[in-house]
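Sequence design from tokenized structure. All designs in this work follow the same two-part layout: the structure record, then the generated sequence. An example of the structure record is given first.
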């Protein structure tokens, strides 16, 4: 049987199912229409729905990079800057901006496009941190190192490193507050 015929029959494709290729996918974009079930009583998509979309795109990006199961560790600086309306074309773009040993920092932007007018606007943005685990109930596992490719990516990585330092300070505050509640 020729290689082409074997590919057509799926003989070369099946063995690749489940094979991880970490370090290959540093960006994910989801696109869909905002629907009536996504909106609040004011007719705009509610923040909880936007946060769900952000988490889903972030998860897909983190798993795509690490090749491992991932959990959300933090969401920083979420900004709701413009409303999303029913029938807007929503794009949720998550892209890697920094890696640690087992963590991945992602910048996530949510864009809304009015299809009738052709106008696009930034609706929401934030930075997320995901941690790769060796199993759903497991321990942190190493992720491939990410390197910025241009000046913009170097700037985003520097911002992620600043957020990391702020997070460490916040963790200390949370620990102190927890001790006071006991």
């Amino acid at each position: 049987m020729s290689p082409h015929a074997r590919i057509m029959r799926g003989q070369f494709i099946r063995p690749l199912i489940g094979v991880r290729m970490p370090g290959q996918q540093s960006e994910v974009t989801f696109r869909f229409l905002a629907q009536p079930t996504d909106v609040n009583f004011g007719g705009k998509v509610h923040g909880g729905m936007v946060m769900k979309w952000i988490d889903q795109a972030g998860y897909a990006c983190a798993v795509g990079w690490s090749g491992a199961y991932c959990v959300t560790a933090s969401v920083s600086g979420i900004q709701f800057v413009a409303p999303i309306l029913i029938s807007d074309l929503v794009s949720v773009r998550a892209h890697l901006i920094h890696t640690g040993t087992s963590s991945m920092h992602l910048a996530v932007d949510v864009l809304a496009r009015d299809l009738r007018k052709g106008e696009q606007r930034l609706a929401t943005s934030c930075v997320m941190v995901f941690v790769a685990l060796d199993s759903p109930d497991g321990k942190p596992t190493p992720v491939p190192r990410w390197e910025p490719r241009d000046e913009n990516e170097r700037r985003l990585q520097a911002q992620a490193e600043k957020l990391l330092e702020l997070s460490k300070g916040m963790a200390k505050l949370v620990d102190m507050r927890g001790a006071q509640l006991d």
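The mean pLDDT is 87. We note this feature because it recurs in several other targets discussed in the main text.
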